[in-house]
Amino acid sequence: MSIVINSTAPDMPVGLTEQASAVDVPTLGHFLEEGFCSPAISRQAGMGRLVGRAVTVRITATDSTLVHKVTGLLQPGDVLVVDTGGDNIHAPVGGVVANAVAASGALGIVIDGVCTDRAMLVDTGLSVYARGTSVLTTKLLGIDAGGINVPVTCGGAAVQPGDIVMGDDNGVLIANPGQVASALESARASDDSEPALLEKIRSGQKLAGLSAADKLLADLGY
Q1: For domain 3-177, is the CATH number 3.50.30.40?
Q2: What value does the mean pLDDT take over residues 167-177?
Q3: Quick check: 128 and 107 in contact, CB under 8 A?
Q4: Distance CA 219, CA 198 (A)
C-alpha cells in the first residue's frame, strides 16, 4: 500500500460553472444517466444550488490523515469529495474539518459515508452531503494507503478529480465536465419551457397529451 498525493485537480472549463449554475440539477436527469450519486447521500447542511470543481480524497475507514491534508490544497470554488472505502460508521468530517474547508473558499463537501457535528457544519455555510450522521469519528492514524486527487467512487458514481459537482436539496451529480456541457443547452430549454407546460396542466390539459407519452403508446398500438 502507498499514498498518492496530487496537489491539484484539472481546471474546470472556462465559463462552465456559471452556465451550469443556471440550470436546475434535476433537469439534467432528463438528459444524462451517469454521475448521479445514490439518493442515500443527502444534504446535511447548506442551501441553494452547489456547483464546483471536484477535489477528491480516498481514505481507509478509520484514518482521517489525508482529509486533514487535503483541506490545505483546496481552492475557492472547489467541492471536496470523500471516498471512505465503504465505511458508513466513522465520520471523517466534523466541525473542525468543515471550518478548514470553508476557510479555503471551497463551497461544499460530498461524503460517501457519514458526517458529524451537524450544527457546526450548518454554521460554516457549506453545502454538505453524506449518508447521515454518526458520533463515531475517524482518527489520525497515518495509515499508508489512499490518495488525494485520485479516482474515487461516491454513491456509486465514478469520480475523477476535476469533475463538475452539482447539488441541491434533491441530491448530487458528479460528472465529466464535457458530459454536463453537452446537456446544458437541452436542459436550459427544458427549464425555460416548464412554466408554460405547468400552466397548460393547471388549465386542465393532460400531461400525456402534452408530452410524447400518448404518441409513444399509440405507436405501440394502445
Answers
A1: yes
A2: 98
A3: no
A4: 26
> In the prediction, which pLDDT does 1 show?
62
CA-wise closest residue to 129 among 50, 44, 39? 44
pLDDT of residue 82: 98
- How is the chain split among helix, strand and coil, in percent rounded to 5? 30, 25, 45
pLDDT digits (tens, 9 = 90+) for 106-132: 999 999 999 999 999 999 999 999 999
pLDDT surpasses 80 at 218: yes
Mean pLDDT value across residues 76-94: 97
DSSP track, 61-101: TTB-HHHHHHTTT--TTEEEEEE-TT-SSSBSB-HHHHHHH
Average pLDDT of span 193-216: 96
Q: No. of H helices and E strands in the chain?
A: 8, 11
pLDDT, mean over the chain: 97
- Can you give the pTM of this predicted structure? 0.96
Extended strands (E) in 7-76:
42-45, 50-58
Q: Which strand (E) or helix (H) includes residue 143? A: none
Cβ(78)–Cβ(106) under 8 Å? yes
Cβ–Cβ under 8 Å, residues 105 and 59: no
Q: How far is CA 140 from CA 152, 176, 198, in A?
A: 21, 32, 53
Q: Distance between CA atoms of 150 and 146, rounded to whole angstroms? A: 9
Domain ranges across the chain:
3-177, 184-219
What 3-state class would DSSP assign to 190? helix
